[in-house]
């Protein structure tokens, strides 16, 4: 892989940008901000093409699906939302009151979603019906972010100076 450090453009929002993630096809960037807005940007045209609104507090994290036009957003309102970029509008496809505190991270894991929170839990949800968690993992410290490797192992960094792998 060759990196291209050529300046492309600058994109402006009204609130502090908390996260930005490339779409699976590399044509768009989805950004979240503290003003509760989620914006999809067309990188080539350097303009916003969709604005998603629904969270009641700051949007903290975005995760784009690796092969579909879906993305997740997490928020200080304790929720995860599943959005479909093909609609270009709100409301979200699915809303889940997932945790008892800020949800700092979420990721797609096959047909499931995994979320991590300051409430010291990581939870797995079925993507089609996010009513009850399939699994809840309790940790000793608030979860800051998560990542998953190709074998399905999840790495969870925490605020108490260590990380765990499940």
TrEMBL record:
<feature type="repeat" description="WD">
    <location>
        <begin position="96"/>
        <end position="135"/>
    </location>
</feature>
<keyword id="KW-0677">Repeat</keyword>
<dbReference type="InterPro" id="IPR020472">
    <property type="entry name" value="WD40_PAC1"/>
</dbReference>
<dbReference type="Pfam" id="PF00400">
    <property type="entry name" value="WD40"/>
</dbReference>
<keyword id="KW-0539">Nucleus</keyword>
<dbReference type="InterPro" id="IPR019775">
    <property type="entry name" value="WD40_repeat_CS"/>
</dbReference>
<dbReference type="InterPro" id="IPR015943">
    <property type="entry name" value="WD40/YVTN_repeat-like_dom_sf"/>
</dbReference>
<dbReference type="InterPro" id="IPR001680">
    <property type="entry name" value="WD40_rpt"/>
</dbReference>
<dbReference type="GO" id="GO:0005737">
    <property type="term" value="C:cytoplasm"/>
</dbReference>
<dbReference type="InterPro" id="IPR036322">
    <property type="entry name" value="WD40_repeat_dom_sf"/>
</dbReference>
<feature type="repeat" description="WD">
    <location>
        <begin position="17"/>
        <end position="51"/>
    </location>
</feature>
<feature type="repeat" description="WD">
    <location>
        <begin position="52"/>
        <end position="93"/>
    </location>
</feature>
<keyword id="KW-0853">WD repeat</keyword>
<dbReference type="GO" id="GO:0005634">
    <property type="term" value="C:nucleus"/>
</dbReference>
<protein>
    <recommendedName>
        <fullName>WD repeat-containing protein 37</fullName>
    </recommendedName>
</protein>
<keyword id="KW-0963">Cytoplasm</keyword>
């Amino acid at each position: 892989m060759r990196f291209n450090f050529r300046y492309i453009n600058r994109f402006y929002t009204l609130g502090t940008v908390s996260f930005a993630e490339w779409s699976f096809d590399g044509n768009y960037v989805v950004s979240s901000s503290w003003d509760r807005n989620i914006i999809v940007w067309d990188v080539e045209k350097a303009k916003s093409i969709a604005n998603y609104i629904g969270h009641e507090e700051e949007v903290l994290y975005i995760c784009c699906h690796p092969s579909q036009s879906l993305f997740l957003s997490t928020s200080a309102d304790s929720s995860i939302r599943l959005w479909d970029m093909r609609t270009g509008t709100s409301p979200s496809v699915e809303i889940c009151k997932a945790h008892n505190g800020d949800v700092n991270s979420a990721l797609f894991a096959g047909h499931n979603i995994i979320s991590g929170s300051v409430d010291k839990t990581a939870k797995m949800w079925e993507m089609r019906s996010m009513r009850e968690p399939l699994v809840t993992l309790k940790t000793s410290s608030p979860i800051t972010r998560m990542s998953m490797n190709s074998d399905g192992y999840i790495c969870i960094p925490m605020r108490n100076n260590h990380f765990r792998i499940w």
